Amino acid sequence: MPFMPLNFLAMWLMGPLSLVLLGGGSYILYEWYEGELVGMPYLLSGIALVLWSFTGHFFSLPLLRRPGKDEPKSMRTGTVERIPRPDGSVLQVEFYGPEHGQPIILTHGWGPNSTVWYYAKRQLSDRFRVIVWDLPGLGKSSQPTNNDYSLEKFARDLEAVVALAGDKPAILLGHSLGGMSLLTFCRLFPEHLGRRVAGLILVDTTYTNPVKTSIFSKFLRALQKPLLEPLLHLAIWLSPFFSLMNWLSYLNGMLHISTAVSGFTGTETRGQLNFATFLSAKSWPAVMARGTLAMFDFDETATLSKINVPVLLIVGASDRATVPGASIRMKAELAQSELFILKPAGHMGLMEQNQQFAEAVSAFSASLG
Q1: Contact 252, 53 (CB under 8 A)
Q2: Fewer Cβ in 10 A, N or C end of the chain?
Q3: Concatenated DSSP letters of 296-352
C-alpha cells in the first residue's frame, strides 16, 4: 500500500517483531540441539516458530479475510512506451482502451506500482483511454541517478506522460502521493490547465505534509524529527536489512496485519489484502525512504485556489493515512470541486470499493467529455 509516514512506522515495528520470531525459534532449536533445553515440546515449539516465520501468511490470510471472485493480479497487457528522463530514470507508460477515447492518466501512490490499478484498468478501459505509469524507482521505471525523489521531479515526469496523451485534454487522477504530485504539477505547469488537462481527480490525498493530515497527527508530528527522519535515513543506509525485514513480515503475515489496519476497513478480500501487502514488501526501502523524506517538505496549500479546472475529490470514509478532513479542506479551497466519499473504505478504497470508485471516476470523466 502507499508508503505514507504512518505506514512506514507500522512496517518498521513489524520488522523487528519478525526478526524476534525467527531468532527466537532458531535459538530454541539451537539450545535443544546443544542439550540445554530437553524435551519434545521445545523441539516442536522451535520448529513451529521457524516455520511460521516463512509460511505464517498461508495460515493467517484465510483467518483474516474472505476470498473474492475477482482478485487483483500483476497484469501488464497494454501498449507500452518507455520515456528516458534527463536524470537517468526511464519511465514505463502503458496504454489501455480505445485509442481515441477520453484519456485518463492514473498516477499511483508511493510504494505500489501501476499494477495497483488492476480494477480501474478493467472497469474504465472499455470507454476511456486509460494511461498508467510507474513512478521512478518503482515497478518497471528505473531509478534516477541523482536520487531525486522530490514531488517536483514526479510532476515533471507527469508532464512527460501528459505529452503522450494525444490531442484531447487529459484527466489526471492521482492516489495518495500521486495526488500530491498532481497538485505540484498544477503549480509548476499552470499553463496546461484547461488546455492539455481537462480536470483532476484527487484520491485519498492531501495538500500538505501528510504527517499533518494523518490519524494521530499530533503524535506523528512530535516523532517526525527525533524518530521518523532518522529511521528513514537508516533505511537508506541499511536497505538490504530493511528489505529482509519487510519480506519476513510478509511471509509470516505480520505485514498483512499492518496493511489491513492502515489501509483497509475489513471489507477487502483475501486477494486484495495480500496483493497490497506484496507490493509494499516488493519496494526497495532506500527508494521508499527518500520519497517519504521528500513528503515532509510538501505544501501546496496556496496552489489550491489557483486551480481553474473541475476537480473530483474521492476519499475513503475511514482513511487513516490521509483523513477525510484533508479532502474537505481542499474542497473548500478549490473553485470547481465535488467530493465523493467511499463507504466503507480506507486508504485503499480504489481496491476495497473498486466498483464505487470506477463509477465515480467514470461519471466525472464523462461530464468533462
Answers
A1: yes
A2: C
A3: TT-B-GGGGGG--S-EEEEEETT-SSS-HHHHHHHHHH-SSEEEEEESS--TTHHHH
Does residue 345 share a domain with residue 198?
yes
Domain count, the chain: 2
The Cα 341–Cα 93 span in angstroms is 29
pTM of the complete model beyond 0.85: yes
**Euclidean distance between CA atoms 256 and 47, whole angstroms:** 22
518498521: which residue's cell?
A: 12
Q: Which tens digits make up the pLDDT trace of 112-133?
A: 999 999 999 999 999 999 999 9
Contact present, 4 and 322 (Cβ < 8 Å) = yes
Torsion of CA 361, 294, 284, 75, to 10 degrees: 10
Spatial CA neighbour of 358 closest among 207, 203, 194: 203
pLDDT band at 31 (very low <50, low <70, confident <90, very high): very high
CATH code of the domain in which 239 resides: 3.40.50.1820
Q: Which three cell numbers stand for residue 160?
A: 512527460
Neighbours of 289 (CB within 10 A): 24
Domain containing residue 53: 12-64
Q: Angle formed by the axes of helices 285-295 and 5-34, to 10°?
A: 150
CA distance 338 to 201: 10
Strand partners, 339: 313
The H-or-E segment that residue 27 falls in is: helix 5-34
